[in-house]
């Protein structure tokens, strides 16, 4: 005689919807969302697999696979004969959930450790170990540049490897370009809200950032024209899913700005780390004005910060000299050979595309979590990895940032990005820093509750 199938609780009556992924994956996503929303709590016992299969009208194999994936994500904790329970989230063990650094989220559907092991194994198998541990000059080997050209293919089409330089990260590339293309005291045109690394590099090199007014489409061409008429000869743009605003500049504005640059023979640094994460990005400015534009694409924002590899596509001109490479070597003699070799291996064997696809999927899921908990974030890019959040009037960015840290949350205030005296009342929230979706959901839920409260007297900055 078979045991009776007991009904499962109402909190487990999810609806399996065609077209929203595999059945087992929908069950896993439901568990993760329910944990984040507090409907399932650490220590809650989950239904036996055959009970849940019966309740949902799916086969036992589907539930078995769902529970196995949930265990891999540390959502469930199996305790033998006692049963299976909702696991304590890692967020409870972490000192701070860091939502201040813009990093790609770990892809939930990939075994990253295995990908890393296989990639490094191939690197060691195919490379001379001595070459991986010695000086390597010249901006990348022929194989490294070929990998860079393949990486840039979706946005740039076919590019000559002679125009490519492999760099130890986008920040080093940006600093070297500033050093090579400007003189002491020169100004660099940029949007009033822009990447903090630009301001940092400019200050260290005794240059200035000139804030150019923007609208919803990006930097205003007439304002840039006035700046260039006044002597500015270097323009910094981050046109796709801009950091921090998430705005993508339309092709018409890219063309207008390129015309202004051409009028004054000004150079453009196009910092474009998020193009490959976008679902509908226009062609880069480097395609519109290839003779004027230095194009930077980094793996740190699309694959992993640990790769510390970026590609710079030099302008399509015949008068190249080695000034950029010399500037780069003055403070960053070379890229880390092992990191570059791994980047090259992953790009050429298809692992980089596999990882990128996983990160896109994970970014989309995290965007939905952000939409669930946060108001005031506007229309997010489907696969964006950060959020620009307008604050209610009762919070200032400095107050909110300090109050969030007291709640074990780290976010970035608007003054980190603003080139001017009065930054907007907003913060940037990065979605990739949390290790798992459940951790992110708990963190954003806590942040949303904090935003609804008013600051206490000791949180008010005088």
UniProtKB/TrEMBL annotation:
CDD domains referenced in this protein's UniProt entry, alphabetically: AAT_like, WHTH_GntR
Source taxon at top rank: Bacteria
Claim: Transcription is one of the keywords in the record: yes
UniProt KW keywords: Aminotransferase, DNA-binding, Pyridoxal phosphate, Transcription, Transcription regulation, Transferase
One Gene Ontology term of the molecular function aspect: transaminase activity
Pfam families documented for this protein: Aminotran_1_2, GntR
InterPro entries: Aminotransferase_I/II_large, HTH_trans_reg/aminotransferase, PyrdxlP-dep_Trfase, PyrdxlP-dep_Trfase_major, PyrdxlP-dep_Trfase_small, Tscrpt_reg_HTH_GntR, WH-like_DNA-bd_sf, WH_DNA-bd_sf
Keyword Zinc-finger attributed: no
HTH gntR-type domain sequence ranges: 21-89
SMART domains: HTH_GNTR
Family according to the record: In the C-terminal section; belongs to the class-I pyridoxal-phosphate-dependent aminotransferase family.
Record-given protein name: PLP-dependent aminotransferase family protein
Species whose genome carries this gene: Ralstonia soli
Lineage of the species this protein comes from: Bacteria, Pseudomonadati, Pseudomonadota, Betaproteobacteria, Burkholderiales
């Amino acid at each position: 005689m078979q045991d009776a199938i007991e009904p499962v609780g109402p909190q487990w009556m999810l609806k399996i919807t065609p077209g929203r992924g595999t059945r087992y994956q929908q069950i896993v996503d439901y568990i993760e969302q329910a944990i984040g929303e507090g409907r399932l709590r650490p220590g809650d016992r989950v239904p036996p697999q055959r009970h849940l299969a019966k309740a949902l009208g799916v086969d036992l194999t589907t539930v078995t696979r769902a529970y196995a994936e949930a265990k891999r994500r540390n959502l469930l904790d199996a305790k033998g004969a006692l049963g299976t329970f909702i696991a304590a989230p890692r967020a409870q063990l972490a000192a701070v959930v860091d939502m201040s650094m813009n990093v790609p989220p770990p892809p939930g559907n990939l075994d990253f450790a295995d990908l890393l092991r296989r990639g490094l194994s191939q690197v060691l198998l195919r490379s001379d170990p001595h070459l991986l541990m010695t000086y390597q000059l010249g901006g990348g080997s022929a194989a490294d540049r070929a990998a860079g050209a393949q990486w840039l293919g979706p946005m740039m089409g076919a590019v000559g490897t002679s125009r490519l330089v492999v760099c130890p990260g986008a920040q080093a590339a940006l600093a070297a370009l500033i050093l090579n293309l400007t003189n002491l005291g020169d100004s660099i045109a940029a949007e009033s809200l822009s990447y903090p690394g630009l301001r940092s590099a400019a200050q260290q090199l005794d240059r200035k950032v000139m804030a150019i007014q923007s609208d919803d489409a990006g930097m205003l061409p007439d304002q840039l024209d006035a700046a260039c008429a006044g002597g500015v000869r270097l323009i910094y743009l981050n046109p796709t899913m801009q950091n921090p605003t998430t705005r993508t500049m339309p092709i018409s504005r890219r063309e207008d700005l390129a015309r202004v640059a051409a009028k004054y023979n000004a150079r453009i640094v196009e910092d474009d780390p998020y193009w490959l994460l976008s679902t509908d990005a226009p062609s880069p400015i480097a395609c519109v004005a290839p003779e004027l534009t230095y194009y930077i694409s980094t793996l740190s924002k699309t694959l992993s910060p640990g790769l510390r590899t970026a590609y710079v596509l030099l302008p399509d001109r015949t008068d190249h000299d080695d000034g950029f490479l010399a500037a780069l070597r003055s403070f960053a003699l070379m890229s880390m050979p092992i990191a570059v070799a791994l980047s090259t291996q992953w790009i050429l064997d298809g692992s980089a595309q596999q990882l990128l696809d996983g990160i896109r999927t994970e970014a989309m899921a995290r965007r939905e979590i952000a939409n669930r908990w946060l108001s005031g974030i506007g229309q997010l890019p489907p696969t964006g990895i950060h959020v620009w959040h307008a604050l209610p009037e009762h919070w200032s960015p400095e107050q909110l940032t300090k109050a969030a840290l007291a709640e074990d949350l780290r976010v970035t205030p608007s003054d980190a990005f603003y080139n001017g005296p009065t930054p907007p009342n907003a913060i940037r929230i990065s979605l990739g820093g949390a290790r798992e979706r459940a951790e992110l959901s708990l963190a954003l839920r806590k942040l949303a509750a904090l935003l609804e409260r008013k600051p206490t007297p000791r949180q008010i900055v005088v």
